[in-house]
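Collaboration report, partner site 2.

Our partner group contributed sequences for two proteins of shared interest, and the home lab folded both. The records are reproduced in the order in which they were received, starting with the first partner submission.
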Amino acid sequence: MQKIAIKGVDRDIYREILPSGLDLILIPNDKNTKKKNYYINFGVYYGALNNDFIPYQQKKMRSFPAGIAHFLEHKMFEMKEADSPFNFYSESGSYVNAYTSYHSTCYVVSGSKKLTENLKYLFKILKEPYFTKENVEKEQGIITEEIHMREDDPDYIVMKMLQRNLYVKSSYRIPVIGSSESIRQINADTLYTCYQTFYRPSNMFLVVAGCIDTKEIYQLVCDELRETNFSPSPQKKVYHEPVKVGRAYEEMAFDTKVEKLAIGYKMRRSNFSIKDNVMLNLYLNMLIAINFSNTSAFSEKMRTEHLALRSNYMIQTEEDIKSFIIEIDTLQSDQFIEALEEQLHHLTATEEDMERMKKVWISSEVIKSDYADALLDSFVDDLVIYHDIVTNYVDLIRSMNMKTMKKVMEELDFSNRSIAKLTPIKK
């Protein structure tokens, strides 16, 4: 395996793309640590955005029900001739779980005992899917109930409204879990088709960190995939999402104590002169941190004037679209929107702001390097976003400068806006 130094910190990792195409990354503990814990993340580049694709060994593009990636994640834990994987891992005091996002599905295991046995069993889970008419129908009931439970959550509802209105073609319009209608369309055949298309080593990554013997883990993985051949990446539909929002405003009365706002701004990725996606995201996130973090002047003013009780800011990416999304609890939504628009059109970032933020971020990178689980999480985020890992964040952060930041601010476009709003039911 290739030994790779994480620049700016005293840490090495190991990486190799195996003949099967699996991206294997190993992060051994620092020699000085006495921790015995290990962490595994087995990821698939298959999430809720991928509902239209050409199935493996077929030639025509097909559409699949929304929520099927999440449904498949659930069903991977059901095995034909074995006890529940949850029982298997609990016997050694280990933790197992999985999660599906718009971009990926990840299976995680952590513990302090039986690393090789647990990793082998995870391979077994992912190699031996078992779908029947009966177990699919049972899962439909479980997930439908989960959907109904979420319909009582105002935070879920307001974001669901925003995503549906912000996007026109992208599967971001539909929640990761799907809908009651789409779940009913899933059957064993569609699950096997999705599994065979995406759950292939060339479309997956495996990150193992902590108290591990790198040579032992490498050999185990090679043995598990010895008879697996490389296959091309799945062909997914390109949606060509327009920059114009689908619907500018939607309001709904709901059982909530305060007003819930979700606001999204769509802009073209190609508007930005920075071509490197990692660098662009660093600048955008620093700009958000300077202007909207809990310690920013804007957030302090919103709290003082009781305009924002809880806030969340994030960047969402889909093909050539970058979306800036804000989620807010407020008592006076109109005043908050007015204040937000004023702030967005007068964004600030001084040399002092940038240097302060750079120091905080570099310190965070150094601290993170001491924790195998934190490094694993960081690399998984990189893989999901960039399909690669970033090992020079410290150097990239140091290279950030005021001239480029000003250019980024000039290239921002907040003209395409969608607002979703929940108002308390009047009693």
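Second partner submission, folded after the first:
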Amino acid sequence: MKNKNKFETSRRRFLQGVGAATVASQVPAFARTFEVGQAVPAAIGANGEKSIVCIFLRGAADGLNMIVPYGDSSYEGHRPTLAMDLDDGLIRLDSTFALHPALAPLESLYKSKRFAPIVCAGSTHGTRSHFDAQDWMEFAAPGNRTMREGWLNRYLMATKTESSATFRAVAIQELLPRSLRGTFPVLAVPGNATKKKSNKNLDIFERFYGDSGGMLEGGEMANMQPDNDAAGVVESGRMTIETLRRFQEIVGKAPTKRSGDVTVSGSAYPSSRFSTGLQQIAKVLKAGEGLEVAGIDYNGWDDHTGEGGVEGKMATRMTDFAQCLAAFCSDLGPELDNTTIMVMTEFGRTVRENGNTGTDHGHGSAMFVIGGDVKGGKIHGDWTGLAKKDLYQGRDVPVTTDFRNVYYSVLKNHFGYKTPQEFFPDFRPQEMRSLY
């Protein structure tokens, strides 16, 4: 009993120190995928070197304040203090839409046809609950409370092979996003995983799970019952440690200058938590470890008050978001052609501003698809206008592009994976042919 308590105490210390790095479906995940004692597989992705980076703007980002419909005749009437025009620095995309000035770092991606904004995008379900909307978007099953595996995890599980890479999927945050939860093992790595304290905690945890080939001789785990459950826990812990060690090696390397006019890796990134996460993803992508799917969240988009137009809380947040994203794309260099970046949010905001210079929970918003073979440089989606008769329930942007059609199109065109009928429960997706 003494050894067990000691193990549990150190295990808690490890999880607290590293920030609760986890694998999908909790501890047994690696044990289901690899036999005990099996060597870590070679870093070969299931579909070559293609990858998806999924960015979730949590809190319901106001799509109308990102891709601004300045040319819509009803726009200013709905937003007397939030509305902007070209004289305010909007970046014109066409006769109807413009980028918010804070998104200026993304203009070059749009002009080079690598950035495809999608308007009136989202879930057709009418919920205005953050929790339900996020769950259903990440499970790709609006209104279905029985689906508990994320859409990206379903893809990973359906396409796994014996040579699937250890780093095939990762989330750069404390907890796995629901899109990556499920049967396929996915590591969640918090931003502080490379700090010295985290290394010390890994050393502590490794005493119980062992290194390289199994348990350390005389280690704490050797005193546990050698049943199947214990063996699974040991192997899962060992695999997690090995993967975290390798992650630390990759992201801990000093930046190196690449050929051509590409800047030193990481030099253009601003200083923020989101920036750190993207830098780490870029390093793993460029390391050739077989990373295929990466997830990262950007929180804080619930702007009921002080949202602002040219200036305000949302503009400040968008500035950081755009600078980080542009630096990430520049950092990837040629790898951007093999990488699709998807940006989404659970729902949009009301078309009409409220009395606190903010907006409330709405319906349709916007999605971004960047990189890969996407047909950027133009607005995608069906825009119906902001006249009251054209709004969802007379108050919100309608959803004319179901987010599942975007998922389907990316999986099919970027990975060459055509989803089976059961992949999207109770829904038959349609390819967005204009996107590719």
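Feedback sent to the partner group on the second submission included the following. The CA atoms of residues 251 and 272 lie 16 Å apart. Residues 9-48, 211-227, 229-234, 259-264 have pLDDT under 50 and may be disordered.
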